Description:
This protein has about 325 residues and is mainly α. The protein has helices spanning about 15-40, 45-55, 60-75, 90-100, 105-125, 150-160, 170-185, 190-195, 225-235, 250-260, 270-280, 285-295, 310-315, and strands spanning about 1-5, 5, 200, 205-210, 220.
Amino acid sequence: MAKLGIRDSQTLxxxxxxxxxxxxxxxxILAGAGKAKTGNHMTLSDALRRYKREVSPxxxxxxxxxxxxxxxxxxxxxxxxxxxxxxxxxxxxxxxLRLKKVASxxxxxxxxxxxxxxxxxxxxxxxxxxxxxREVKRPSNGRPRDRRVSAAEEKALIDRFGFVEGVAPSTLQxxxxxxxxxxxxxxxxxxxxxxxxxxxxxxxxxxxxxxxxKNGDSRNVPLTRRAGELLKVLLGERVEDGAxxxxxxxxxxxxxxxxxxxxxxxxxxFHDTRxxxxxxxxxxxxxxxxxxxTGHKDPRSLMVYYNATAAEMAARLD
Length: 318
């Protein structure tokens, strides 16, 4: 018998047995050839590192991805196995262990990232034939956050950051106060604000240009009068291009949490400014304009961020 250049033979007592053996052996050769074509010498660890090296740098969420990929590479018990041998049962076991440590939305995001690694390994790198993550049920996203930022919390935070109205920041904490206030006015994400350049701020036309956002698209964000005033103070007389802020995202996160805890403000995340800003802006613009401001392609997604209270809605009915 010869198949795909492989020759093999066997002596068997009956013709039926010989046919059965030949059929089975042919299947083995074809399966082996399939594995050879996929180049399945790549381990899951190899795939995670290659993804981090080649794919993550093309994404707006590069930092988050790199941290999660490193964590998976260090903690997955099956990371040393050939990527084509990883099973859905192993993925499910990992999911269940992670659910004991972190909330279901976090596990869902991690599973989405791991699925992306398998998907590109299957489609482009030809290192596996299936994506086992797709065969495992993902935990629900859970109840979306509806945390608002009160006026008292806003004042306490910016005072503690050292904010002085109309005065350009000289410390990183004062810069964070401006970032926080701009987030409340524009619904921009922290990273989008920190990534602003002088050239991207169009004060005359009252908008800022974001060339790269979380979903990979660019967008123009209109500025409230208050946001324009804050940016005018930040830019001062600057005409040369460059970063508006010195502050970096990692430092901003740590600084915000530290001050929040010192003030004993409970369960407030910086990203809650996006909820607060979206709810405020909804009073001023229609839903389609609001979706363009926040960068949501599907206006229905705004419901995650729109958190008006019943009392606020009742006041608008009069």
